[in-house]
Specification:
Blueprint lengths: L2 E5 L13 E4 H4 L4 H13 L5 E6 L5 H14 L4 E9 L2 H10 L5 E4 L11 E7 L8 H11 L4 E5 L10 E5 L2 E6 L3 H10 L2 H9 L4 E4 L5 H12 L7 E2 L20 H8 L6 E5 L6 E5 L2 E3 L1 H11 L12 E5 L5 H9 L2 E5 L7 H5 L5 E4 L3 E4 L7 H15 L3 H12 L1 E12 L1 H14 L7 E2 L2 E8 L2 E2 L6 E2 L4 E5 L4 E6 L7 E11 L9 H4 L1 H11 L1 H5 L6 E2 L1
Parallel strand pairs: 3-4, 3-5, 4-9, 10-11, 10-12, 15-16, 15-17
Antiparallel strand pairs: 1-7, 2-6, 5-6, 8-9, 12-13, 13-14, 17-18, 19-26, 19-27, 20-21, 21-24, 22-23, 24-25, 25-26
Helix pairs in contact: 2-3, 2-5, 7-13, 10-11
This protein binds alpha-D-glucose-1-phosphate-6-vanadate (VG1) and cobalt (II) ion.
The site of alpha-D-glucose-1-phosphate-6-vanadate has 18 residues, from loops.
């Protein structure tokens, strides 16, 4: 088989965002578009003699992109690629395979929680040999390379058969097609008390898991129904579809509406959960009670030692800056370190590698631990099941007792989507301009303690990430954070994060939007959102 060297012009705008390169699918399908980005990756990380993991969430173009990447890996001299059967791998399963086989990294095809399909979104992300998303210096180098490369290498060959598990050759490269679920399921069995969870299901515990027609369906079926004995049909929307059945595979109360309705309806199961397109996010719901992701992280941290994989205790915890401080209170009580990082899982990698933290989380329905280097939706669900099985209490009882020990951090995120990018930038610039003068100001019954823009210095490698969100803190512990999304593919998305601490148990059952009302008003007055972007109501509230 011959190697073709294809001349190409650099393609503008292939800049990886919060989590890899995400674009509209038709953009990714343009001539040379995928190829340029893949060649830039191989040029930066090197391919000769190396082994990579490859797989994706099964969305439209996943299968075609996988074949292109395999031919390019072969033409660039890679020794071996481990690929999930059918080119399918959830993001956490890919991270695990990279670590399990000690490979040189992996390529993950996904736009995560963004909708998929011919007119929706596609994405590609490179993960490092530690299993985690490439850190900023690497993504910057890849971006830099996209602007200079003049040719890419691709093998002239037919498609590799990815339908059957086993070893095949592609030119001089070995392709190992593996079961996407088996190794991941085995890892989960080592971390959690499967016998206790099995006994709970056998005693009649009922659960609903909404896989949202995305990648976790086969994983959830195997683990929950086959290995743990949950009733057949526990997992719904279990077959991954190229367009996710037209659904928006983002596990939150808005997009997983049907699950929420069931959990708040008559005859609700004991426990509900959902995961996103690529399986790294989770939403957890009890009967009649929603668990905010920030609270979920805090509860998992407080109860982690109930799971066999965490019996020795936690080394520390980490959360993204906009995530609520609920976990900070748990860390303080446990006497362990608590780190605050910018948004995006890549910032947890160094902390996990250095053994500084065991659990990490983000407000955006992401929770995980040092078992892989990605957030992990099913892992979080299993951790909850393990805690429920050992404590023999309901989700509501566990949350309420958590709040009585630690207080409640009311929390909400308001998203303003597909905003005109220039207007969003103008708003951010104006807000930045007033930050130095805000301390001491009073508004809506609150007093501003401090206002700044978050910059992060990685404690392990010393790298600095600027402009990671504006934060405004109030004297009563309330907080506003504003930042622009780095995963959208249309205009800009403004994310407004709101938090208020409540120590009084008599006020724990307040509706979060009511509890946060003064903070919401303060955010709108300070950022002048309506004036700049022409909207006062968010598109999505979580
Ligand atoms: C969003 C979330 C962030 C998450 C990222 C990737 O980023 O806010 O917490 O890490 O998505 O998640 P942004 O820049 O749009 O706010 V996933 O499940 O889409 O890989
Ligand atoms: Co995801």
């Amino acid at each position: 088989m011959s190697i073709e060297i294809v001349s190409t012009a650099p393609i503008a705008g292939q800049k990886p965002g919060t989590s890899g390169l995400r674009k509209k699918t038709p953009v990714f399908m343009r001539p040379h578009y995928l190829e340029n980005f893949v060649q830039a990756i191989f040029d930066v990380v090197g391919a000769r003699g190396k082994t990579f993991v490859l797989g994706g969430d099964g969305r439209y173009f996943n299968d075609r992109a996988a074949q292109v990447i395999l031919r390019m890996a072969a033409a660039n001299g890679a020794a071996r690629v481990i690929v999930g059967q059918g080119a399918i791998l959830s993001t956490p399963a890919a991270s695990h395979l990279i670590r399990l086989h000690g490979t040189d990294g992996g390529l993950i095809l996904s736009a995560s929680h963004n909708p998929g399909g011919p007119a929706e979104d596609f994405g590609l992300k490179f993960n490092m040999p530690n299993g985690g998303p490439a850190p900023e210096p690497v993504t910057e180098a890849i971006f830099g390379r996209t602007a200079t490369l003049k040719e890419y290498r691709i093998l002239a060959a037919q498609d590799v058969d990815l339908t059957a598990i086993g070893r095949v050759a592609l030119g001089d490269m070995t392709v190992d097609v593996v079961d996407p679920v088996a190794d991941y399921a085995a890892l989960m069995e080592r971390l959690f008390d499967f016998p206790a969870i099995c006994a709970m299901f056998a005693a009649g515990f009922r659960m609903r898991f909404d896989a949202m027609c995305a990648v976790t369906g086969p994983y959830a079926r195997e683990i929950l129904e086959t290995r743990l004995g949950a009733a057949p049909g526990t997992v719904i929307n279990a077959t991954p579809l190229p367009d996710f059945g037209g659904l928006h595979p983002d596990p939150n109360p808005v997009w997983a509406r049907a699950l929420m309705d069931e959990m708040f309806g008559a005859d609700a199961p004991d426990f509900g959960a959902a995961s996103d397109g690529d399986g790294d996010r989770n939403m957890v719901v009890g009967r009649g009670i929603y668990v905010s992701p920030s609270d979920s992280l805090a509860v998992l941290a407080a109860n982690a030692t109930l799971a066999p994989g965490y019996r020795a205790g936690l080394k520390g915890v980490a959360r993204s800056m906009p995530t609520s401080a609920a976990v900070d209170r748990v860390a303080q009580a446990l006497g362990i370190g608590c780190h605050e990082t910018p948004t995006g899982w890549k910032f947890f990698g160094n902390l996990l590698d250095a053994g500084k933290v065991t659990l990490c989380g983000e407000e955006s329905f992401g929770t995980g631990s040092d078992h892989v280097r990605e957030k992990d939706g099913l892992w979080a669900v299993l951790m909850w099941l393990n805690i429920l099985a050992v404590r023999k209490q309901s989700v509501a009882e566990i949350l309420t007792s958590h709040w009585s020990s630690f207080g409640r951090n009311y929390y909400s995120r308001h998203d303003f989507e597909a905003v005109d990018a220039a207007k969003a930038d103008a708003m951010a610039t104006a807000l930045r301009g007033i930050l130095p003068d805000l301390a001491g100001q009073h508004l809506h019954g609150l007093t501003i303690l401090s206002a700044d823009e978050f910059a992060y210095t990685d404690p392990v490698d010393g790298s600095v990430s600027q402009r990671q969100g504006v934060r405004i803190r109030f004297t009563d512990g309330s907080r506003i954070v504003l930042r622009l999304s780095g995963t959208g593919t249309e205009g800009a998305t403004l994310r407004l994060y709101l938090e208020r601490y409540e120590a009084d148990p008599d006020r724990f059952s307040l509706d979060p939007q009511l509890a946060l009302a003064p903070v919401i008003q303060a955010a709108h007055s300070l950022a002048r959102i309506a004036e700049y972007i022409g909207r006062s109501a968010p598109d999505v509230i979580t």
